[in-house]
Amino acid sequence: MGSTALGSGAPARVGLAPKNGVFGSNLKQFSGFMLKTPPNVGLSSVRVRASVSSPPQKHYSPKTSGVRSGEEVRIAVLGASGYTGAEIVRLLANHPQFRIKVMTADRKAGQQFASVFPHLITQDLPNLVAVNDADFSNIDAVFCCLPHGTTQEIIKGLPQQLKIVDLSADFRLRDIEEYAEWYGHSHMAPELQQEAVYGLTEVLRDEIRNAWLVANPGCYPTSIQFPLVPLIKAKLIKVRNIIIDAKSGVSGAGRGAKEANLYTEIAEGIHAYGIKGHRHVPEIEQGLSDAAESKVTISFTPNLICMKRGMQSTMFVKMAPGVAVNDLYQHLKSTYEGEEFVKLLHGSSVPHTRYVVGSNYCFMNVFEDRIPGRAIIISVIDNLVKGASGQAVQNLNLMMGLPESTGLQYQPLFP
User: Of 153, 178, 187, 284, which residue is most buried, by most CB within 10 angstroms?
Assistant: First the structure.
């Protein structure tokens, strides 16, 4: 039962260690960072956070097919000082079985988490540590909330029994040449890329269930693919001339200090950016091309809008001959009927970002365009929840054999 330390019974992913990685000692170097793994491994009986639920008394065993009732799943959150890391902590406060044991934040190492995010002071959490000082010997699963480009080498050095959900863009694109083109550097873990499963939960549920590494989708791709993928698969819309206008709250740009995100730069306005080269474009096109079984190219313009969180994607599509707007509506209704988190609104109700704030929901609806034969689809999510941390928790629930909604039944905050 329980995880074992790297170098003391559980090797890293076979064949994936960097050339200068050293196995067999309790301090391992991996291409510029160190993984600290003590030789004596035991099960921790100390709870590290508060919860509204009764604490599980047993630990999850990776030898079993899934988490059993009452078993504790020990979680590491890498990059916990960012917005997505904080959302993971907030969501897991009500999770009955996930327990946070390790939290990393290199620039905040040694600090209490509540000093970084005072709104989570009620949670009993471990202090933040640098990633090279993190001990993964008693960890079952990892949420990786690090920036793109830093995740690849870290993940390939982790013990092989871990379940990992990566919230960066590092493993979303199957084509590593395309990754290099859009992200400006070569992929450092091509072997892992072949094993990663794309984590659009409601669309790729079966693949995610059996994965050990899930690439959590980006926020824009999440809001866009939910309506478009089923419509393209059913050949109800044309794949040419898809136009997408999307708007995101400022938290989508991350927590780092940037001049472009200063209040005086973004207040009382809306700002288009990445007009010809936003990095979510290849991710969106990859998913739509899979649905169409042919190459799909879109026209995509993202906009930064002066609000903290929320995302709206407006899609302009041409319907197939003989198809009416009601056909699109009915197909989306049947596709997502019974889904807890993806909802089609009734009648002419317009989705608004304020309807989903703080929740894991995606709300959408379909409208007739003034131009004959065209339709307008509007989809809204909370970019930090369904567009990031909420979908990550949903994916790990699925990977652990738990109900997908576990710990995610937060209703939207309104007004």
Answer: 284
